[in-house]
Structures are given as C-alpha cells and as structure tokens.
C-alpha cells in the first residue's frame, strides 16, 4: 500500500514550518476512513519540534476519526518518540496489519 | 550555517552582546557582594545563573570560545555550590579575572575581525589558558567529563556521590519559545536520563494543536515522569536550566494516593485547560481525555455546539461532579490571574536618543507655551487666559513626567567602584572597605553618564593619596582597614555626591609648597586654609611624590573640576589633617528644564532656580551702608541677612527703581538676599548652555529663552553666593574678560 505522505530526511525545527502545508495538503488528499500511512523510512534526523509535528498530525487525524500508521520506523524516530514518552504514536493501529 | 541562520545571528547578536555585558557586570557585583557574605546561598546561585546564562546564550550563537571558557568558570562555581569550596580572596580574584576575560571574549564576538587585533587576541588567549589551568586546579582534580546538550557543552553527571536513590516526580511544560531559542525538550530529557532511571514517561500532548492549527515552531510539549536518582533537586533543576525561563517545572515526591483529588487540583499550578487540570491531578487518564475531546469535536462538527468537556468526562469517565467543580474553579481563577498579570518588574527599553528628542521638543513646547500665555494675558480675554493656563498646567505635568523617565538611580555607577576599590587597594597594599550610601538616589541619566569619569578619578585619588597603608594607619592609632564612603542625596534642588575617606587628609604644608614651586601662589604668600585645600583643583597641580600608574595619568584634579562645572555642578573639598577628606560634588538634578523664578533688573530678565528661593521680602532700609560690591546687611526676623545688589555686583546700567525687592536664596552653606528691581513670578525654564562669550561669567549656570523671545540668564545659587561673599577685589568677571563689563544678556 502506498503511503499518503513520506517523511523527509530531516524533520527538525528548521524544516517543520515548510513541512506543515505539505502535510495538510496530503491530509486533505488522502481519503478516510482508512489509517493514514506515514512513510518514515527516509527519516535520518528528527528533534522535539519534528516529533511535535507528528503528534499534531495524529491529533488532526483523530479529530477526523482516523488513525495514524507510521511505516518503516527508523531508529532515530523510535528513539525520539520514546525519549518524549510518545512511543504509542508508532504503534500500529488495529486492522491495518498487512 | 545557512543563510537564514546567518541572518538570525546578525540580527540577534547585538542583543546577545548587550545582554552578556549586563550579565558580566552583574557577575562582578554579585561576586563582590558574595565576598562580604560568603555563606549567602542565593548570591551564589545567582552568580552561577549569570555564568550559566552567558554560556547558554553564547552556545546558541556558536561562540564556542565563550562556551568553553565559561564552562570552566561554571564548574568552579558548581564546586562552590556543592560546598566543596568556599570563596576566599584568591578564588574571588581568580573569578574576577575570568569575568574580565569573558567580557573580552564577548566584546570580541561583537567586533568584525581585525588583523591589527591579532596580537591582543593571542595575548588574551594565552591569558585565558592560564586562567583555565588555575580554574582546573581550584576546582580540584575531579575534572568532569563533558557531554553535549543542545549544541552547548554541559558537565556530565558526576560520580554518584551516594548510592541512595530518591524517586522524584517531575512535570514539565516547555515554553512556547523553547525551539526558537535553540533548545529541545528531547535533549533536556536525554540529559535527565543520565541522572537516573526514568520511569512512566508520558508526553503531555494536550496543548499540541491539530495540524490545521499548529504553529510548528512554537513548542507545545509537556512531559511527566518519575526518575530514580541520587542527584539533588538542584541537579535536576540544572538539567532544565537552559529552558528554565519559560518552562513550568514541577519536581515533587511521587503522587501520594491519600490526598484527595480536589485538594490536589487546588494546589496545582495554573493551567488554562480543564482537561489538563484533571489529567494532572490524576482524575482522568490521557486516553479518557482524548476520547472526550474527540467526542466533543464530533459533537461540535455535527450539531455546531458541544457539551462542556467536564460534563462529557463526567459521563464518559465516571468523574464525580465535585471534582469537575473543583477543576472548573481552578480554571476560572487561573484565567482571572492571566487577565491581570502581576508585571511588577517589567521595563521597556527605549533608545536614549528618542527620549532626548522628546525632551528637546518638550523644551520648545514649554517656550512656545510661555509665549502663548503671554499673548493671552495681553489680550485680556478671560477664557483665552484660562485655556492657556490649563495648557500650561498640562505642559508642566508632561514635563515632570518626561524628565522622570530620564532619572536613574546612581547606585549602578557607585557599585562599579567596588571592583575599582578592591583592585586598586590591593595593588597599593592597602586595606579599604567601600561603603555606599543613598544608592537609590536618582538623577538625570545624562548627568550620571558624565559624572562617572570624574568620580573614578576622585575615588582613585582618595585610594592613592588619601588612605594610608595598614601599617601607617595602625601607627596613627586608626583601625588597619580604611573606609571610603560614596554617598548621594538630594539637597535643595541638586544632588550631592560625597566621597569621604578616613585617611590622612590633605597636608596643607605640602600643598602650599607645591603651589609655590609651581608658581600657582607667590612664594611666601599663605592663603587662608580653605583656599590652600582648593589649590589641588588648580591646573598643573599634582602632589604625588611619585607618579603612580593610578592617579598620575596626566589628568589632574583641574580636569575633574572642569568636567563637573560643565555639568553646572560644583566641587568642594574639606579636609582635616590626620582625619580624612571629604570631596563634595553638587550637581543639578537635570540638565534640561527646571522651575525658575523670574526677576527683572532694568530691562533684563534673570532666573533663580525655584528650589533655592526661600522667600521674597520688600526691600527695606539697610542696617549698614552698601560697600563697593553692593553688599549690605538687613535684619530679617531677628537675624542678620547679607544682601547683595545685582546692580552693583555686576555693574548693571540704569538707575535703581524707587521700590525694589529682596529674594532670599538658600545656597549650600549660606542664606543670603539678592536685591532685584521687580518680581515676575514662577517660570518654567528650559536650560540652554551659556554661549562662549558668557562662559567665563561667574554666578550663572545657563540661559533660557522666554516666551517673548528674550533671553534670561539663570543664576547658580552656590556660585553667586561664593561670589557675593568673596573679598572685595575679586571681580565677578573673569580677569581674561575684563572688557566685558556688563553681563546684560543679548538675544542671539
């Protein structure tokens, strides 16, 4: 299944402002109610601002009654989410297993 | 560094430089205060924060040298905070020297690289290397490892000092500017994780808006966790110190289960959102809250209105009404508080030139207002006069308010001398305590700035020439430690600054001999005692047996006097041999506008500063004949009042009128009367400097333009008094300007 959105290599305070409009467009372009697939395999660098943006995406999805499914989680993303107590963001939603 | 970063750095660097300079100055003050009170924990903490702030913000700008250097200072301070070291004079000197180098580095960062500075920079670098060695040695051998946090180095966790682990519950909500300030909660938590084991880490995402609304560069994150650590509370707080300014940080014992939820909500920090309150209190889980929020959102999407969150939670999560009510109370009270924040310590920084521009305009307004009022009075139109009076009153209020804006306490200038006294005294092998009195006395900023150099000279002079070495003092039966007092107070419309030392005083014989030698006084002539002391202010006078590098800088006391007189001030010295000296500087409160009292002499107008005018009496027959300078004595309520006639003192033309008045003036040490032709009442006076022609005229401090365009000279009560009491023969007009026999002002 293709991803609705792919994360860039760098998602940090330097790139979040540029990323947001693209993500919003992707959000609008991807139909519900299936989980929103976020491709993370290219991500190499992420900071607190990046994690926050992912959380913000998840919140927007929740308001649209959709789930977030992060695909191809790299170690950097896992470490960052765990470091902020957000490992659950990376949990696969039920019903989206291949 | 990309272009955006570079632009950001270019824009923000000046602010960093000026802030860092302030921190360096504060560091010095705190350190000197700490010397007097080495056990003051708060001072020590404040000192640490200064160093830490400089280091932290230097890190943001990539000023690695500053970071690396202040890091060592911080390590030493940390050892002091642990109690492993106490501040002694040697340590204090080391820290002061380090602080100087920090300033050098900060200044260097603010300048464009200049090849001609290379030598100086190399010298400073070598100096810093020495200091770092000294800091290392002082901090003890346990040199700590260095970790990297958010781009800046911080000290790694030291060897566990004790194996006792304390569980701590930590809740932190990071400030909105955290990311923009170059900080990252992730890095902070990473650092905390080195302090101990982190458990039950939960992100607090309640404040994170959905993607549609988020400003991704603002930080909305919060975390809550427990950490088992042997680190102290301060260590944990230190982990947050980079983000501390706008981070809500709560460190406590792990939640106790016995406390009731309502009580906990009551004791919580203010949070604007009811969901946060309930979650933080442990009343509902995050999941409960998320569900409830989703329900609320769906309701509002579907029917345009939603139930309050509290009610949804009450039905969904089985929350008791009482708890919801407590949370609602809390929310209401915190919102109220937000609406009226207690902004006691807030200031606006204004560029001094903008303020000066306003004050210049205000001066014009005062003059124009006076002109309008004059015309109104001439028109004899009652309502016009009334309207003008009202405007005049408002102008006066604006004037007072605006001039107040320029007033700054002199304490800042005074406290700069702590370091000077400390270093100079030790250089000279003297032991001197500096006392500061009246540090909150306010005066015009322009005056403060221009008085700093003369003060510096006088302080150095007192240390160098006035105060003796401990051995000499003990031999003279005085305590070994000398005292230098800087004091400031307001007195009759001026500010009086005194520099008092308890040294050996001015040796009149030595002064006299030097004056003879220099030809300032004819050999063999012995002037009165106070005149001898005054000789130290004569150009070309220096009593130092040997020129030291302290006060012998080619700047004499004559320059000090000239600088003070340029501010319309005066300087006098009193000295008792063996007891010490007092140098008294008297300055006007402001350089711009004063309340004046306008008098007329013939067709000319003169102004007395209103504060110096005590009363006005009708001229009466004098008890004595007027002497050649127009001086006489009248009796005022049983006391003899010396009265001087301006007409005769200044040889003004024109006959005396049939009736005249005496203005009674209170000057520094005397009260005297001035005989004038007519009284013209109170007048808002915009002070203009005296033109070159009038500068040598004695007794005046400035000039002013009246509403009708006429020029009036402003009297200086102190110098007029001196002039009037001077022996016959000294002319009010300087000897070089004898051709100017009449000080009648002429319009420019």
Structure characterization notes:
The complex is a heterodimer of chains A (98) and B (748). Chain A has 98 residues and is α/β, with parallel strands linked by helices. Chain A has helices at 16-29, 48-63, 75-83; strands at 5-6, 10-11, 36-39, 45-46, 68-71. In chain A, helix 1 packs parallel to helix 2 (48-63). With 748 residues, chain B is an alpha+beta fold. Chain B has a five-stranded mixed β-sheet with strand order 8-10-11-13-12. A five-stranded mixed β-sheet of chain B has the order 21-14-15-23-22. In chain B, a hairpin with a 4-residue loop joins strand 19 (661-666) and strand 20 (671-676). The longest helix of chain B is centred in the N-terminal third of the chain and has 34 residues, at 3-36. Chain B is globular, with a radius of gyration of 35 Å. Chains A and B meet through helix 1, helix 2 and helix 3 of A and helix 6, strand 4, strand 5 and helix 10 of B.
Annotation keywords:
heterodimer, A: about 100 residues, two-stranded parallel ribbon, globular, B: about 750 residues, alpha+beta, five-stranded mixed sheet, 22 helices, disordered C terminus
Beta strand count of chain A: 5
Main beta sheet strand tally, sense and closure of chain A: 3 strands, parallel
Rg of chain A, rounded, reads: 12 Å
Sheet/helix structural class of chain A: alpha/beta
Total strand count of chain B, please? 23
Query: How far is it from the N-terminal to the C-terminal residue of chain B, by CA?
Result: 59 Å
Fraction of residues in β-strands of chain A: 5-15%
Provide the helix percentage of chain B. 40-55%
Task: Count the DSSP helices of chain B.
Answer: 22
The assembly state of the depicted protein chains is heterodimer
Helix content of chain A: 25-40%
Largest interface: A-B, 29 and 33 residues
- Poorly predicted residue ranges of chain A: none
């Amino acid at each position: 299944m293709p991803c609705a959105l792919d994360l860039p290599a760098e998602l940090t305070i330097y790139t979040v402002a540029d990323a947001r409009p693209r993500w919003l467009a992707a959000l609008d372009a991807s139909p519900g109610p299936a989980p929103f697939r976020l491709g993370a395999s290219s991500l190499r660098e992420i900071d607190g601002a990046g994690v926050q943006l992912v959380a913000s995406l998840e919140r927007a999805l929740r308001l649209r009654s959709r789930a977030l499914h992060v695909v191809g989680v790299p170690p950097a993303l896992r470490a960052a989410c765990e470091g902020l107590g957000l490992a659950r963001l990376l949990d696969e939603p039920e019903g989206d297993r291949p | 560094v990309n272009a955006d970063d570079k632009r950001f750095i270019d824009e923000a660097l000046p602010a960093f430089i000026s802030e860092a300079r302030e921190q360096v100055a504060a560091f010095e003050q705190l350190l000197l205060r700490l010397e007097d009170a080495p056990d003051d924990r708060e001072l020590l903490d404040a000192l640490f924060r200064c160093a830490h702030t400089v280091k932290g913000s230097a890190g943001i700008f990539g000023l690695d040298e500053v970071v690396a250097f202040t890091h060592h200072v911080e390590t030493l301070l940390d050892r002091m905070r642990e109690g492993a070291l106490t501040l002694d004079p040697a340590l204090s000197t080391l820290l002061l020297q380090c602080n100087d180098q920090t300033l050098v580095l900060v200044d260097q960062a603010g300048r464009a690289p200049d090849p001609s500075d290379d030598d100086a920079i190399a010298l400073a670098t070598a100096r810093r290397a020495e200091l770092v060695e000294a800091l290392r040695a002082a901090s003890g051998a346990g040199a700590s490892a260095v970790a990297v946090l958010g781009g800046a180095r911080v000290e790694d966790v030291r060897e566990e000092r004790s194996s006792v682990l304390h569980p701590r519950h930590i809740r932190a909500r990071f400030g909105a500017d955290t990311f923009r300030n170059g900080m990252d909660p992730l890095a902070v938590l990473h650092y905390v994780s080195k302090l101990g084991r982190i458990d039950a880490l939960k992100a607090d995402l309640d404040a994170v808006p959905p993607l549609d609304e988020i400003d991704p560069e603002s930080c909305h994150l919060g975390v809550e966790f427990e950490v088992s650590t042997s680190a102290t509370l301060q260590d944990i707080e230190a982990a947050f110190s980079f983000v501390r300014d706008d981070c809500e940080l709560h460190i406590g014992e792990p939640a106790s289960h016995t406390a009731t939820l309502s009580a906990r909500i009551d004791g919580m920090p203010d949070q604007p959102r009811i969901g946060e309150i309930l979650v933080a209190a442990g009343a509902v889980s995050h999941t409960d809250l998320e569900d409830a929020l989703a329900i609320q959102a769906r309701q509002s999407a579907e029917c345009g209105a939603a139930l309050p969150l509290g009610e949804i939670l009450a039905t969904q999560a089985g929350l008791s009404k009482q708890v919801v009510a407590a949370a609602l109370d809390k929310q209401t009270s915190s919102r109220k508080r937000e609406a009226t924040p207690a902004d006691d310590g807030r200031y606006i920084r204004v560029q001094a030139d903008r303020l000066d521009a306003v004050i210049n305009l205000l001066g014009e307004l005062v003059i124009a207002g006076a002109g309008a009022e004059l015309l109104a009075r001439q028109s004899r139109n009652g309502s016009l006069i009334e309207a003008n009076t009202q405007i005049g009153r408002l102008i006066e209020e604006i004037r007072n308010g605006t001039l107040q804006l320029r007033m700054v306490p002199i304490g800042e200038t005074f406290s700069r001398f702590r370091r000077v006294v400390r270093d100079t005294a030790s250089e000279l092998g003297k032991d001197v305590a500096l006392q500061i009195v009246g540090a909150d006395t306010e005066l015009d900023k322009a005056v403060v700035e221009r008085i700093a150099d003369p003060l510096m000279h006088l302080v150095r002079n007192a240390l160098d020439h006035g105060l003796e070495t401990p051995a000499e003092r003990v031999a003279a039966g005085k305590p070994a430690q000398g005292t230098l007092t800087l004091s400031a107070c307001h007195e009759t419309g001026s500010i009086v600054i005194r520099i008092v030392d308890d040294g050996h005083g001015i040796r009149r014989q030595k002064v006299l001999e030097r004056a003879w030698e220099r030809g300032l006084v004819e050999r063999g002539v012995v002037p009165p005692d106070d005149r001898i002391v005054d000789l130290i202010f004569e150009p070309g006078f220096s009593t130092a047996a040997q020129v030291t590098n302290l006060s012998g800088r080619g700047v004499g006391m004559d320059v000090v006097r000239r600088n003070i007189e340029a501010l319309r001030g005066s300087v006098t010295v009193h000295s008792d041999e063996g007891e010490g000296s007092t140098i008294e500087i008297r300055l006007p409160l402001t350089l711009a506008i004063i309340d004046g009292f306008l008098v007329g002499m013939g067709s000319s107008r003169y102004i007395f500063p209103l504060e110096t005018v005590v009363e006005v009496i009708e001229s009466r027959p004098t008890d004595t004949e007027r002497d050649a300078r127009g001086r006489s004595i009248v009796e005022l309520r049983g006391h003899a009042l010396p009265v001087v006639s301006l007409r005769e003192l200044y040889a003004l033309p024109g006959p005396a009128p049939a009736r005249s008045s005496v203005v009674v003036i209170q000057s520094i040490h005397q009260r005297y009367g001035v005989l004038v032709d007519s009284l013209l009442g109170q007048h808002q006076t915009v002070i203009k400097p005296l033109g070159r022609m009038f500068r040598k005229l004695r007794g005046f401090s400035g000039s002013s333009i009246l509403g009708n365009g006429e020029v009036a000279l402003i009297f200086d009560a102190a110098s007029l008094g001196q002039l009037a009491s001077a022996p016959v023969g000294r002319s009010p007009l300087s000897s070089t300007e004898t051709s100017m026999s009449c000080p009648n002002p002429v319009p420019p």
